[in-house]
């Protein structure tokens, strides 16, 4: 299933994508919350669709697409998880995955636009596969890790490189700015993505391909990352693990190319849909 939410910010309603059309499932009586995921909500939704699928109202054509999950608890991001991206950033790879948290105040819809922070000089793009957790777990063993995965989501880990590398402290300074975590358009259940380790990952800047990679090049794969992350963070329904980005970010261009007001990024991953963001100057 491809779950979506639609409507004005703060007023979103649950929906579903069927045959490439958006349908309203408000009659289910539940939003796509963490509690929904953790209490068998996907099974209830499937039964509802069996009974009501032919009678669902379409979502209005011009209705905004919102964040597909109502209240993610946290986004745990994985840094430097593609060898080609390590080379282009100038960072040094580590013997274990690098983990950091993305601020929930950075959440943003798939077409809402991104605000370049005040005084930013190196705002960059990073298309990433996000793992959506479906049940609570800590110290998960790798053979059982996929049991905790509910599905996947498209994430662009917008980053301010100068804040990360030149302003002291941790990477979080350059990762959690407002609008820097666009998610969606869909939360896609894992049955629709049988091999998350073989998905095309792409991004265009003003119509020109910048990223054109594949999750086959992930250093640490979905089961490994899920198990590893659970050693340090309790994982709960609705949590997201963002798996890292392949080469093609602005920092890797010759010369580096960072985002400016008026730029448009379009990006996507096989099976997860695509997003499109207009860059805005701070204060607009």
TrEMBL record:
<dbReference type="GO" id="GO:0044281">
    <property type="term" value="P:small molecule metabolic process"/>
</dbReference>
<dbReference type="InterPro" id="IPR036663">
    <property type="entry name" value="Fumarylacetoacetase_C_sf"/>
</dbReference>
<dbReference type="InterPro" id="IPR051121">
    <property type="entry name" value="FAH"/>
</dbReference>
<dbReference type="GO" id="GO:0046872">
    <property type="term" value="F:metal ion binding"/>
</dbReference>
<dbReference type="Pfam" id="PF01557">
    <property type="entry name" value="FAA_hydrolase"/>
</dbReference>
<dbReference type="InterPro" id="IPR011234">
    <property type="entry name" value="Fumarylacetoacetase-like_C"/>
</dbReference>
<comment type="similarity">
    <text>Belongs to the FAH family.</text>
</comment>
<feature type="domain" description="Fumarylacetoacetase-like C-terminal">
    <location>
        <begin position="74"/>
        <end position="274"/>
    </location>
</feature>
<keyword id="KW-0479">Metal-binding</keyword>
<protein>
    <submittedName>
        <fullName>2-keto-4-pentenoate hydratase/2-oxohepta-3-ene-1,7-dioic acid hydratase (Catechol pathway)</fullName>
    </submittedName>
</protein>
<dbReference type="GO" id="GO:0003824">
    <property type="term" value="F:catalytic activity"/>
</dbReference>
